[in-house]
Amino acid sequence: MSAALWSARYLHSTVVIDAGDPRNWETRGIHGYLGLDGITSPELRQRGRAEAERVGAHFIHASVDTVTRIDDDYFSITLERGMTIITARLLLAIGIQDVWPDIPGLDRCYGKTAHVCPDCDGYEARDSKVVVIGAGRKAMGMALALTTWTNDIVICTNGEPPDLTERSLQQLTTLNIPVLDARIRCLRSDHGELHTLDFDGGMSLDCAHLFFALGQAAADDLGTKLGCTRDSIGRVITDEHYHTSVRNVYAAGDIVRGPQLAIGAAASGAIAAMAIHHSLVPAVRRLEDPEAAPERETTTSAN
C-alpha cells in the first residue's frame, strides 16, 4: 500500500493485487509505528488503502496465477479468475508466513499475548513471565532478545530435542533461563490473555506472554517463478533500491531481508516506488550525469 500510494502520486497507473490474507491478521496493535503506535492492522490497512485510492491507485481482490515476461520491458499477469494485466514494472510485496506450533489454544491468544517478534511486542511483555516455544539457536536468540524486558523466561521445545551446545546451555543457566522438553498439551487463556501452559504428564506452567520461533517461509512462489535470487528461507535479495536480480522486478516488505517491522515495510515500499518511478522517466527528462564520459565527436577534415 505504501508503494501504491507513492507510485500513484508519481501519476503512474498503479494496481495492487491483494488476496486479503495478511501475515499480521490478528495483531491487536502495531507497535513502534511513529504517530500510529498501537493502531490495529485492519485500521492501518483501511487507512492505507483509502489514501492510495484517493490519488488513483486501483485494488483488485485476487491472487496471481501466473506471471510471464512478454519482452524486456513488459510482463503479463494472469489472475486466478482469468483477468490479464500488462505492466512495465512489478513489485513483489508478498511477505512471509510464520510456521506455527501445533498447540491447541494458540489461535485464541495469538496477536494479544502470543507473538513472533520480540522487537515489536517485547515491551508489552516487560516484567512478565514469558515462554519461548522452539529449539536450537533460533529459540535461544529469541530468549536472549527478550531479556531486554524481562528476567522471567522459559524455553519450551515442545517435545523436540533442545539442539543446543553445552556452552549455550550453560549461558542460559547463567541467565536463569530453563529449557523444558516436555510436549505442550494446550494453552489456556481468557479473552486472549494467556495464563497457563498444560504439558503432557500433568505439569502446568504459569505464563503471561508466549513467543514462538519455529521458522518462516515465503508466502508465495512468485519470486521463484520469476527467477529472482533468494536466500535460504526464500526471501528475495535486492539492492539498496529494492531492485531484484531480475530486470524491472522489485520487492519490498517482509519478503526482503532486514528487520520485519511494519514501519520498515512501509519505508521499503516507498523507496521501491521511488526507484520504479526513476526507472520509468525518459532519458530526455533526466539530469545529465556530469561524471559520465562524453560522447566522442566525429569530425571530418577538408583537404
User: What fraction of the residues are assigned to beta strands by DSSP?
Assistant: 15-25%
Judging from the principal axes of the Cα atoms, what is the shape?
A: elongated
Question: What fold name goes in the CATH topology slot of the largest domain?
Answer: FAD/NAD(P)-binding domain
Alpha-beta content class: alpha/beta
Number of domains: 2
Distinct helical segment count? 7
Q: What order do the helices and strands follow?
A: HEHEEEEEEEHEHEHEEEEEEHEH
CATH architecture of the largest domain: 3-Layer(bba) Sandwich
Low-confidence stretches: 297-303
**What would CATH call the homologous superfamily of the largest domain?**
FAD/NAD(P)-binding domain
Count of DSSP strands: 17
Q: Mean pLDDT, as a whole number?
A: 91
Spatial order of the strands forming the largest sheet: 8-15-9-10-11
- Proportion of helical residues: 10-25%
Radius of gyration: 24 Å
- The N- and C-terminal alpha carbons lie at a distance of 66 Å
CATH C-level name of the largest domain? Alpha Beta
Q: What profile does the largest beta sheet have?
A: 5 strands, parallel
